Amino acid sequence: MFDDFLIRATLAAVGVAIAAALLGCFVVWRRMAYFGDATAHAAILGVALSLALSISVFAGALAVAVVMATIVAGVAGRSYGEDTLLGVLSHASLALGLVAVSLLPGVRVDLSAYLFGDILAVGKRDLAIIWVGVVLVAALIFARWSRLLTATLDRDLAHASGIDPRREQLVLMLALAVVVAVAIKVVGALLITALLIIPAAAARPFGRTPEGMATGAVLLGVVSAIGGMGAAYRFDTPTGPTIVTVAAGLFVLSNLARLRSGAGA
Question: Is residue 209 in a domain?
Fold first, then answer.
C-alpha cells in the first residue's frame, strides 16, 4: 500500500475519521443523528449546484450544508414533530439533489461516488482541503470544549454560566457542515452520519469522562479508517462502506467487551 493514491486516500480517511469522531461525541450526547442526516443529504444538492456553476464540489457542498445546518439548528426544539420535520428535510433534500443532478444538461455524473464516496480519487488539492477542514473543526471544538460540553450536559447550568445553548448548537451544526463537505469524497453523503456516530458510540461504554470518550472515539475512528482501507485493498471492496463496516465491527466488539466485563463483575 505504498502507491501515492493509496497514501493520499489513507491520509484523507484518517483526517475525516478524526474530525468525525470529535464531532460525533456531541452528536451522540445530543442525539443529533437526524441533524447529521439532514445536513449530509443536503450535500448532494450542493453537488448539483457546484456542477451547474462549474465550481468546486467542496464549495457547493459546504454552501448548501451550511444553509441546511442553519435551518435545522433554527427548528430545534421549536416543533413537537421535530424528528418528522428533520426527516422530511433530510430525504427531500436528498431526492431534490439527485433529481437536480440528473437534469443537468451535458453532464454525466457517477452518483455513487457522491453517495458512497470515491476516496481513491482524492488528489493533493482534495487532501489539502480535507485537512484544512479537519484542523478547523478540531480547533473549534477544542477552543469551545467547555462551553459546548456545558450546553450539552445541562442547559440550565449553561444559562446560569452565561452560555447560550442555542448558539452552541449552531456552532456544532456549522462544524457538522464542514465535516460533511470534506467527507463527501471519502465516505459519501449516505455514510458520513455512520462515521460520526459509530466510533463515538463504540467508545462510550469505556469513556469514564467526556474527554476519555472523545479520545477513544478518535482512536477507534482512525483504526476504522486504516483498517477499512486495508480491508478494501485486500478484498477489492468499496472503500467507504468498508471503513464503516470496520467501525461497526469495532462497535460490536466494544459492546461484547462491556457485557463480558459486566458479567465478570
Answer: no
